[in-house]
């Protein structure tokens, strides 16, 4: 059974930094894509950043230049370095891991979420 365990959330002042980590376990296959989503109160979950096993990255426009996603394939771990945080970054951040099966399509796995709160 695949499990994703996140850590690193917390309370920080605007302009500060946090680093999120997510360790994936229980899969016999490597994850094609790993990423971070967030969900603020009253809003839909949205993609923040994603990274492929080859290192290609994708960012939401709102975090470009401030957030950096990286991964350690050997450790099945994905990181999100968040700098210059803003109050609007406040949300629950969820780790996602995806396996792309040729026949059946993608399988998505989710962490339990970690709260990030940015005070003004």
Structural overview:
- By secondary structure, the chain is mostly beta strands.
- The protein has strands spanning 3-7, 10-13, 18-25, 33-39, 46-52, 57-59, 67-72, 77-82, 91-101, 105-110, 114-119.
- Strands 2, 4, 5, 6, 9, 10 and 11 form a 7-stranded mixed beta sheet that branches.
- Strand 7 (67-72) and strand 8 form a beta hairpin.
- The radius of gyration is 14 Å and the shape is elongated.
- The N and C termini lie far apart (40 Å).
- The model has no long low-confidence stretch (mean pLDDT 96).
Low-confidence stretches: none
User: What's the N-to-C terminus distance?
Assistant: 40 Å
Share in β-strands: over 45%
Task: Round the Cα radius of gyration to an integer and report it.
Answer: 14 Å
- Judged by helices, strands and strand pairing, the structural class is mainly beta
Number of strands: 11
Broad shape: elongated
Instruction: Spell out the helices and strands N to C.
Output: EEEEEEEEEEE
Q: Helix tally?
A: 0
Binned, the helix content reads under 10%
List keywords for this structure.
7-stranded mixed β-sheet; elongated; mainly beta; 120 residues; 11 strands
Q: How would the blueprint of this fold be written?
A:
Blueprint: E1 3-7, E2 10-13, E3 18-25, E4 33-39, E5 46-52, E6 57-59, E7 67-72, E8 77-82, E9 91-101, E10 105-110, E11 114-119
Parallel strand pairs: 2-11
Antiparallel strand pairs: 1-3, 3-8, 4-5, 4-9, 5-6, 7-8, 9-10, 9-11
What's this entry about, in short?
With 120 residues, the protein is mainly β. It has no helices and 11 strands. The strands form 2 sheets. Strands 2, 4, 5, 6, 9, 10 and 11 form a 7-stranded mixed β-sheet that branches. Strands 1-3-8-7 form a 4-stranded antiparallel β-sheet, with no helix packed on it.
